[in-house]
Please model this.
Amino acid sequence: MTKIAAAIIPTPRARVQAMKEYHPPLGCRDALRLDFNENTLACSPNVREVLGRISAGSLTRYPEREPVETIVGAHLGLAAAQVALTNGVDEAIHVLFEAFLGEGDELLLPVPTYTMYEIYASATDARVVAVQAADDLRFPFERLLAAITRRTKIIAIANPNSPSGSAATRAQLIEIASRAPQAVLLVDEAYFHFHGETVMDLIGFVPNLMAARTFSKAYGLAGLRLGLLAGPVELMRWVRRVLSPYSVNSLALACLTPALEDSTYLDWYVGEVLAARAEFEAALDQAGVRRWPSRANFVLVEIGAQHAEFARLMRAAGVLVRDRSGDPGCDGRVRITIGTREQMQKAAVALNETLDVLKNEGRAQ
Ligand code: PMP
Model:
């Protein structure tokens, strides 16, 4: 058919016209993946086995999430009605913002932080109020409290935070929730397993507190897209109105129970990462690279003006890292995911070689 020439074409909402497309830099990742804070190895072998046993017939059915929400709720000490499974935490953020953020509302964000909060907020009519962390990148508690207004509708806190690796304390989070009763406090616990501290036990007790968890990090299931949002029933019912009933597919649902049950694998992987983090931090210190203390499976380092060249040379050496220079207050800083000890020993070799090359390039200039 010949293309119809259009005098007028449909236009989306003004907010969408103003948005930028977001393309995570994923291309060509056949290398050591220290760029997206994923599990760098594998999921539990039990999950792999369940996946292998999925029948062709079962794929003909629409996925049923409620029975699995009961299981995950029990695992977290919550009722099924207090939990929603989502297509990764990204969908949890998206539906929460869609449900709550309207014209005149403010989303309060300590920055630098996870990119998707701002992206999903930009599709709503709300205003983003960013609270910049100081140079130490510690959680800007006092400044955040001071930025709360009557219009604050959501406060989103990644805990631990990315890319800084810093964490807010439980007492600080409780204080924030009580100082902004008109707002949802979203505590994004994507990196919970590496940190070990949670507010999940406060769900239902603090009326405006919600928390998110992902299966993309410690559990090693980023490709399946599985996350969850927990909150008091009174708030979850609004979220469920905008959540697609089938956004979590049946393969992801089938993998959740074996993933939760294999705590031996999870504990092993987390232990491996924490040991690797300590060793890699020592290697950074030895190399004289400034780093920020991390409570997660990554570490932010100061490279300076040569940050892009550093990331390029590391890639050439087979190690992918993430240049975070574009993040607020992060010029010259690069985030490196922590994998296993063996992987991080290779990464440390590549790091030292790359730093040597940069030093020589610097001298030549
Ligand atoms: N929250 C934070 C703080 C993250 O860093 C990430 C992933 N980079 C996510 C959420 C996204 O998790 P998911 O893969 O479950 O969408």
